[in-house]
Amino acid sequence: MENRKVISALVENKPGVLARVAGMFSGRSFNIDSLSVAPTMNPEFSRMTIVTHGNEAIFEQIIKQLRKLINISKVQDLTRGDYVDRELVLIKVKAASIKRAEALRIVEIFRARIVDVAQDNLTIEVTGSQGKIEAILELLSSLGILEVIRTGTVAIPRGRKGLKAGDSGD
Amino acid sequence: MPHIKTSIVFAERDGTKLKISGAEILLRSLKAEGVDTIFGYPGGAVIDIFDTLVREFSEDFKFILVRHEQAAVHAADGYARATGRPGICLVTSGPGGTNTVTGLATAYMDSIPVIVFTGQVPTPLIGNDAFQEADIVGITRPCTKHNYLVAQTEDLASTIKEAFFIATTGRPGPILVDLPKDVVQNKAQFEYPDKIEVPTYKPNVKAHLPSVKRAAELIRQAERPVIYAGGGVITSGAHKELYKFASMLNFPVTSTLMGLGCFPATHPLFLGMLGMHGTFRANMAIDNADLLLAIGARFDDRVTGRVEEFARDAKIIHIDIDPTSIQKNIVVDVPIVCDAHDGLSRLIEELEAKGRSPKADEKLKEWHSKLTVWRNQQRQRFDRTTEIIKPQFVVEKLYELTKGNAIITTEVGQNQMWAAQYYLFDNPRTFLSSGGLGAMGYGFPAAIGAQVAYPDKIVIDIAGDGSIQMNIQELATVVQYKLPVKIAILNNGYLGMVRQWQERFYDQVYAHTDITVAPDFVKLAEAYGAVGLRATKSSEVENVIKESLKTKGPVIIDFVVDREEGVYPMVPAGAPLKDMILV
User: Fold this and answer.
1) What is the pTM of this model?
2) Would B6-189 and B391-560 be classified into the same CATH topology?
3) Catalytic: B69?
4) Which of A19, A64, A68 sits opposite B138 (nearest CB)?
5) Is A25 within 8 Å of A69 (Cβ atoms)?
C-alpha cells in the first residue's frame, strides 16, 4: 500500500471516545485501514493503533485532527521511527487428507499454529508483520481459504521510546 | 410569587455537607461561572430545572423564552459574539436537542463559546427508544468542540466546570451537556471547583519565538505586504494590537467576513473585505502581494478562490491558535501556533526592537499608490438616483443614520454580503453573522441575544425576505421581553443569492428561487404586537429608518427593493481572486 502510516494514540478509556475517533475519520474522508483498541496497564487509558494511508498533507491533518480531540492524550506517528508491528490472523483453510501435509508445511515455515482441526478443514493462527501475513495468505490461498479473521495491526516503537502518558514521544 | 427555598426545606443532611438536587447544582454552577442570562425552552425532561429556576433563582438569571430551540442557540451565540462571554442555552430532550443542531454547527464553524444544556430521559431508560429520547451526544459529536452525557449527579459540577473551560479557551467552540432527568432530580453534595485540569487538553496560546523572529525578518523586507485578518483577532481581543501593528508599519489590512470590525473600516489602511464578494483592491492586493500575514483566519474557500493561484507571489506567515488550520488549505512559509493577541504582541516587540529596511519602506510607498489606483478603478458602486430602492442604498442609509454605532446581525445570502460591504464596522463584536455554516435564520435570534446583552444599543438585523421567515416566530419573543430589535428586510421576493448564481451560471433558469408568495410583513409585525413599516421608494428610506429608530419596541421595516440587484464584485466559486466579475 502506498504511504502506509501507523499511528499510535493514547486515549482516555471513556464511553464515546472510539466514536469520536471513527467519526473524525469518516467526517473528513480520511481512510482507516485498520484500527485496534484495548485498555493499557493504566485502566484509565486505552491505546489505539490506527493504520491509514494517504499523502503527507492528508496525514499531517489526520495527526493534528486526532490531537485536537479532547479525550486524546498522545498521538504518535510510528512510521517516523523504528517500530515493531504485529497482527494476529485466524485462517480457516480447506484441508482434505491429500492437502493436509502441505498445509502443515506452510504452518511450520511461518511458525504459525493449528488451533482447530476438523474433518476437512484446519484453523491456523498466525502472528506477524503485514508482509508475513500477506505471504502466508498467498500460499494458503492455493489450498482454498474458507475464512480469514484479522485483528488489525498493533505496534510499538523499538528501543526505549515509549508511548505512555508523559513520555515525550510526540 | 414567594420564593420558597425548597433546597433547604427538603435537603438531606449527610454528615456536615448538605446534599442538593442536580437542578440546583446546575444553576448554582452557572451562577459561579458568572452567567446572567439563559436562553431556552422547557419540556418534560428539564421540568425540574425550570421549576428550580423559577422558584429559587429568578433573581439570579434573566431567562429568555424563545419560540423555537434553534433560536435559543442562535441567541446564545449572538450574546456570546456581542459580549465575548459564553452564551447559555437550556432545552429539553429529543426534539429540543435536535432543534439545537443548526445552532451548534453555526457556533462550531465560527468558534463561538456556546454551552447547550439538554434534558435527557432518565438513565435507566436510555437506549430504550423512550418518549422524547434522542442520542443527542452522538448526533452533535461532529458539530461541538466537545460534549458530555452526565452519568451521575456527583459528576455534574465538575462537568460544568470543564465545559466552560473548554468552551472558552484555545479555539473556542460550542459544548453540549446532556442531563438525564434522574441526574437532575437526585441529590449530591455541591462544591464548585475553582480550577480544573484537563490533562488531555492543553491549547497552546504562546508563540514559538524562533518562528516569530523568522516572521519578523520577512516583515522587515516585505515590499508589497498585506495583513489578512480573521475572526481570531476579535476572539482573542487583539484588535488594539492589530491597529498598533498595522499603523506602526503602515501595512494595508484586509479582513474576512468574520474579521469585520477587527480593524476600523474607516481607516485609510483598510482595504475592505477579501474573497468572493470582497473589494477589487483587496483581492488585487492579495494577488500581487509579496508578503501575506494571515492572523486568526483559516483560508476558507470563499476567501481563497482557486487555492493554487491564491497569493502566488507571496511568502505567507500564518498565525492561528488551531494547529489543524495551518497547512490545511494553503501551504504557508512561517506557521505560528498561538492566539492572535500573543502573536501580534510578540511581532510588535520584535519590530520595535529592530525596524524595517529603509529600502523596503521606499517600495511600500509604491505599493500604496498601486492600492490607491485599484481603489479608484472599482469602488463598490450602485445607482443612487433610482426611484426603486437599491438594497445597498438601504444599508448605506442604516450606516449613516446610526452613525455606525449599531450592532448589526445578518441573515445569510445577499443581505449578508451587502451588510458586509456597505456598513462600515469600526469596532469588534458589532457585526454578527453566520460565516462558516451560512445558516439562514441566524440573524434575528442573534439580534435578540445581542439586544439582551446590550439593552441600550441599537441592534439591527439586516435580513432577506427568505431568511427572516426561517425564525420569524421570534417576533413573539421580542414583543414579550420588549426587545427593541429592528429588522430591516431587503425584500426582493427571491432567494436572491441563489437567483444570482442562476442568472450568471445556470442560464437564467430560476429553479424554485421565486418566493413572492410571502406574508405582508407589516401586518405580520402588527399581528405579533410589533410595529411594521414599509418603504417602496428610495425617497422613503430615510424616513422609515428614522421612525424605526425612534420607536421604543421591535420594528420590522419592509424595504421593497430592486428584485434583480446582484452582489458585486464576485469571484465565481473555484476561480482565482483576480477573475472578478465587477458588475
Assistant:
1) 0.94
2) yes
3) yes
4) A19
5) no
